[in-house]
Amino acid sequence: MLGRTDSRRRLIAVLLVFVVCALALGVRLASWQVGEREKLIAAAATQTTLRVEEPTKRGEIYDRTGTVVLATSVARDRLVGAPKQLTRSERQQTADALIRILALDEPQATELRDRMDLGKSYVILARGIESSMADRIRTASRDGVIRGITLESEPLRVYPQIGGGPDSSLAAHLLGFVNREGTGQYGVEQGYQEILAGSPRVTVSDRDSSGRAVPGTAVVQWAGAAGEDLSLTIDAGLQLSVEQALLHAWIADKAKRVSAVVMDPFSGEIYAEATYPSYDGNDYAAIAAKDPNRFMDPVVSSVYEPGSVFKMMTASAALEAKTVKLKTKINDVGTLRLDGGRTKVDDADRRAKGWMTFEDGIARSRNVVAAKVALGLGATTRESSAILHDTWQKLGFGQPTGIDVAGEVGGLVNDPAIRPWREIDLANASFGQGVAVTPIQLATSFAALMNGGTLVRPHVVKAIGAHEIVTAPGPQVIGATISKQLVGVMAHVIASVPFYHDRTIVPGYQVGGKTGTAQIWDAKKGRWKVNLFNYSFVGFIARQKDRPDLVVAIRIEEGTPTVARVGQLEMPVMSFELFRMIATDAIKTPDLLRDRPIVELNPDR
To answer: What global pTM score does this model have?
Structure first.
């Protein structure tokens, strides 16, 4: 007789298994319905609804007058296809017809055919189609020549002002551009993306099996908000003349690039800022394919060794430390031995000029004079290094200026507190070697040297909509008395050196500044570049003596000298000559300084 197969214990075990499974399923179901409810609803909604974001009108960009349009948006059509809904022969027929209508070349035609063969329900075939071409496409669609094709309106960013050189739009580096997705790239367009773009209009509608919106089901979730207009500090007329001057110097000097900044030293407003070669913001796609580095703005994004313009920073440190006066006599020995004779510093001509005043040493750009003054800032090399480095920091080197465009870099400054400087490091630093800066940093630091000692924040946006931007005063970084002395030193540079005076002076105005010429290190070859130099000039022009109105910074990158002798490097257009061209145009620009009073520098009490 067979035994019984049922068992109370086994039944209880099976029942417990069912209970546990039921509880687990219940917990999981509750978790889905409560904890993941929103996620599940959203997932379901994506299967049955279509969410569309439509960009609103992007804000326009004007120059400082509010009348010259630098950037605007126009309506254009994009060509959209639904090749998945077509047979192979229909796709081929439609592609052939579109190639004829759009007059595409072979690479463009191949790309369009490839897109039609993707088999998708939605594919963009062409952009920026003007109204006449759009009418031809609509006619072909009505006649059945093309199938599965629609036209959708989209905004196109346009830069209507012609630049100062071939194939360029005005202020291209400063403005940047807007890509096909409506996102600003570089310059003001990227820096003020959220303000210019506003917020998109959002609609939700039911979707059919092909993924398209069901007519009549659209509901507006968010009406969107148009972007705000910007008024820049840039004067369009001056900007154009600056770009033309840079083109002239670029050609004459066979330079890699030429840059310039014109700034109000008291407010930090940028009146003009340019680099040549430039580009056409309306044709950014072609530039991106050939040379995307062209988009970078060297004024804010490219660093270099500035050379002797940095002697003004050494002068500022020494006058503040009271280790020298302008009339202090210093012996220029031509070559200065340092670090126990292991290193040395030479003047450009390697000739001893004997005893001269400190201000004459700056005017004649004597490296030995600057090095001796820097070494004497403190009781030891360490202390002197700390004092000079502190002056650099106060004047903004080693950190971004805060200019309101995208892509600014902070430069490269070695901190002697981290790695102590040798005597040769301090000496080189005194005349701008072993440090890397941007042109906008130079313009900003010189503004502080000449405006009474205040470090301003450079900026290019004057107003957002109807609201004018008010910039808070910067910190006082040097004394007003020192500032007035430095203005005098810069004026003395031009007045006392005929080589500068004859090609820099502007009749009826006072000018002053400092030159810089620096070798360029070739990292690939591990040596200095041959017969190529960076030329700089930073200076001021004034309507009234010792009261600067404008600061102008010039950089000629990899200029080729036509005269290259020891102590003498000349080009067809020198940096200080380019300064004179630009400063003259700036000071005479109508209405630029009309509402600005002549500012007197009040010395320290």
So the answer is: 0.84
